[in-house]
Amino acid sequence: MIRRSVAAIVLAVAPALMLAGCAHTESRTGPPQRKPPGASTTTYEEARRQAVDIGMQPARDVGLSKHEIPPVLESALADPYNIRGLKTCAQLAAAVRTLSDALGPDYQAGGEYHENRMGKLAAAGGKSVMNSLIPYRSLVREITGAAPADRHMDAVVDAGLARRGFLRGVQYKQRCKLRP
Predict the structure, then answer these.
(1) C-alpha 112: how far from its chain's center?
(2) Helices H, strands E: what count in the chain?
(3) Which residues contact 87 (CB under 8 A, 6 or more apart)?
(4) Residue 45 contacts by C-beta under 8 Å, 6 or more apart in sequence?
(5) How far is CA 102 from CA 70, 134, 161, 164, in A?
(6) Going residue by residue through the chain (180 aa), what tens digit of pLDDT does each one get?
(7) What is the pTM assigned to this prediction?
């Protein structure tokens, strides 16, 4: 019964998200889905991914669905400033690439920030509807372990970002050729 309700709401929210164009939003509830270099995410694909993510939120809230944490982020949390085994520029570049696969693209200096306001409004409306389905949502999330899992996800993402920045600094210090 819950699955049918969730599916019905996803089907109701998805067209609004697709029509609005859905700007790319980085969610701290999980690592972003990456595409191989050269492949672009269409507005439709982004809207679909976001609609599914919004629709699955109640399932995550009650512990029926969980995000998987990449092992590279767990090890970054354990020791973000470890450089054992990373002597050469190629090894450093491989470590940065592995982190970027888990975290998404690195920050690019001089890049412009673009936001689709209508997409953001549609996504906020969809999230608001989905979040209202569970009474006492914050308490339910604590009891089921969804809130601690989200806090852990935030911690591993932060550690991964710190590690990637640290490794970029080591690359710079060793005068390695930096690639975006």
Answers:
(1) 20
(2) 8, 0
(3) none
(4) none
(5) 6, 31, 10, 11
(6) 544 444 444 444 444 434 334 333 334 445 544 444 444 456 677 777 777 777 677 777 666 667 789 999 999 999 999 999 999 999 999 999 999 999 988 877 777 767 777 777 777 777 777 767 767 777 887 888 888 888 999 999 999 999 999 999 999 999 998 776
(7) 0.63
The Cα 123–Cα 12 span in angstroms is 12
In this structure, are residues 78 and 87 in contact, taking their beta carbons and an 8 Å threshold? no
Q: Helix, strand, coil % (nearest 5) of the chain?
A: 60, 0, 40
Closest by Cα among 118, 119, 106, 101 to 169: 106
Query: How many Cβ atoms from other residues are within 10 Å of residue 152's Cβ?
Result: 15
Domain range list for the chain: 2-173
